[in-house]
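Morning run. Coffee first, then this:
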Amino acid sequence: MINRFPLKTKIFKLSFFTAFILFLVACSTKKDTFLARNSHALSTRDNILYNGQIGLDKGIKEIKTGSKDNFWKRLPIEKMQIIDDNAAAEKTKNANFELAEAKATKAIQKHSMNIGGQEKNYQIDEAYLLLGKSRYYDQRFIPALDAFNYILYKYPTSDKIYQAKIWREKANMRLGNDAQVINNISKLLEEKEKEDKKKNGKKFKKQVIADANALLAASFLNLEEKDSAIAKLKVAERFTKVNSERARYRFILGQLYQELGVRDSAIYCYQSVIDMNRKAEREIIIQAYAKKAQLFDYQNGDKDSFVKTYNKLVDDRENRPFLDVIYYEMGVFYDKQNDQELAKEFYNASLDANSPDVYLVASNYRNLGNMHFKNTEYSTAAKYYDSTLVKLDVKTREYIHIKKVRKDLDEVIEYESIAKEKDSILNIVALSETDRILYFEKHIDKLKKSDEDKKIQEEKEKETLANIDRNNINSVDDPAQSKSGMPAKKSSVAPPSMPGASGNTAANTFYFYNPTTVAFGKIEFKKKFGNRALGGNWRLSTIKTDAAAVSDTTATAKKEDAKEVEQYTTAFYLDQLPKTQAEIDDIAKKRNFAYYQLGIIYKEKFKEYGLASKKLEQLLTYNPEEKLVLPTMYNLYKIYQITDNAKAEEMKARISSQYPNSRYAQIINNAHPDSVSSNETPEDVYDKWYKLYQEEHFAEVLAKLDGLILQYSGDEIVSKFELLKANILGKLQGLEAYKNGLQYVADNYPTSEEGKNAREILTDQIPTLEKMNFSPVDTKNWKVLFKVGKFEDKNTKVLQDKIKKFISSENVQKLTYSFDIYTEKENFLVISGINSERYANNIAGIMKENKLYKVAEPAVVISNDNYKVVQIKKNLDKYLAQPKVDPVVPAQPPVVPQSPDVKQPTAPGATKQMMPPGMPPPAGQTNSPPKQ
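And here it is:
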């Protein structure tokens, strides 16, 4: 084919080739040409970075909408929820930030023109900035820091240099380098001031100034320098162009002033947030109202204006999502004015609003619990506190405090119940026979009325249920009407008494699908067969079976009726009253102890001195047992010291005159002037003396304890000293002294851990120890005792050397010896490891008769089990009074190997006595005085 336009073809080919060459040159990142620079910059900005910025904006929006501010605490400057390391490992990555990072990386890799050590694509600094921001919001702060540093290193003349510096310091702040942030941003702002003085200098954008000062404020707050933070935050609030940031900065300023106690400035800042109206988010405006309410002056404030403002907020439809906050603040307002009815109403309304704020829900429950607590409605208060604890963070102090109060309430509820029950019984017992009958007749009348009301209610409920069932039956397919509304054809399957349908087929309704026919069939079955038990061969069952079943049912019903009737007789209640004086005394004793416990709990745990004095005063009118009288009077004295000095002096005189030799009289009259206070804390003093107790310096510790108890009278540490004293008395004086000491601790400190521990030992262990007695059973573990004085005495040392010599030269078995404390003045040197009574007697004989020893002190041979009893009850004299077998002296002493291992005695504190559970323990045992 002949080409008619050869010239045009050549021009086209040449033009195409030229354009292709130019395209290749433009696409090259190695050629520094005008076309290449602008081509790559245009592609970077309008394609890759554009899509990356969209992803970043979406991710930031998700963060702001997903991050829930906790207005109960100071808001962070930047709305961003930082996730800890453990949670970060499980956190799902944000796809938008991944996209932004991927786009920034692509722009750098594909369009970077690094020629001769300089970047020729003026959009690459934007790519690095996008890369750093995406990593920052993804909470990978170190990689973000690398990206921002690269901009500062490679592009010092970039128009984004100030933004890069600020973002670098934001990453540094997140890494905890607050001092470095303050230093660098301060230099940046100084640089800004210098540039402002130059006519041709770079001008800072207002938003850059706002961001820099906001960052400084955040760093100052991290260092708890609130005054400096306030100054910088004010500048940020003035320069920012973003209304949401301005509202946030004003709110934080209000919180800071509130923390510093500058009430007027705080109110001004919160009001400035409110005045922004629709320029700010509705949530932060409502929270500003709430903060203003917390600062309301209940003495001089305009209460009518407050109520009017909050009623207006309630009526505003825009505030419906925040009614939980509004109702809560109104509840607090009325609670502070002791208007409990309205306060309860608004607290409950706040709860009904189903608030997503968990702490707000907890606060509603807590305040309701506090109200019931003040009204001494402890059972109800406990329920509200339970609900509060479910909503609170277990790591907070508030949780620990409320949990402690809740635990104490258990004791109050228990003892209040006991006191009420026992008081009721004793009051009835005190009535005459006629009055008792009248009392129970009134009770029976109330019971009958209550039961009648219950029956009427049950009948109504049954009737309602029957109507519901009847309506359900009628709502099922009516055989008289088809689904189309036309009369239905009669079923061919019908009850015997009903005429069958003529001309119907088997396609009609099945018998058991029709409730009417089923109900009719049941009636016809009962007419024909009567009541039949559910089981096999029902047709062959005799009627007797059914009659027996019916008879049993009737008998049961009669018994229940009889039981009900029995509760309507006075005899039913009179028979349950205590008959003997012993039973009445036991009830009175329990009542008195409950009153005492309540008085102590109200005094010690809740500081409710009015309730405490009321219970204790009432207890004294009941003539309680002697062990409760003096502690009750002493505790009343301590209460009166706080509430009524005149009564305190009167009670002091009463205790001093009636119980002059008691420890309480010594305490209130300061009978131990030698008690010297020190700079040590009570806990340090207790630790020091407890350590000596562990080292078994019992007499030394006991001599100091009374003075320490007097010195720290009224302090919680006293119960520890008292229990320590009880343990030492048990060590030195025996079981009876130990029991009395524990009883004293249990009676006088019933709500402390020491008091509870003492009560538990008295109940569980002391009865077992009291039953212990000497056993005549021969055992394989015997001891030889020598009664001695103190460890440092000369005679003790001499005897110890003789025993040591005997064990080293005369030992057939591997014997040991020890120094065991017995009483304050008497102790034992004990030879142990003996496997028979006969060998023990031989040792005693040798020690007495052999010229190498000639021990004048009489030896006591005793089994290990009986030695425990001696140590527990301190009754060696009783053991020695039993018939004993004289020691047998062998003709020749046994030949033993030389130099066996000998257990060397140490100071008294190094030797541990063998004591059963419940006895005053050596250090380290489970029933030692609690060391907290």
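DSSP finds 38 helices and six strands in the chain. Good start to the day.
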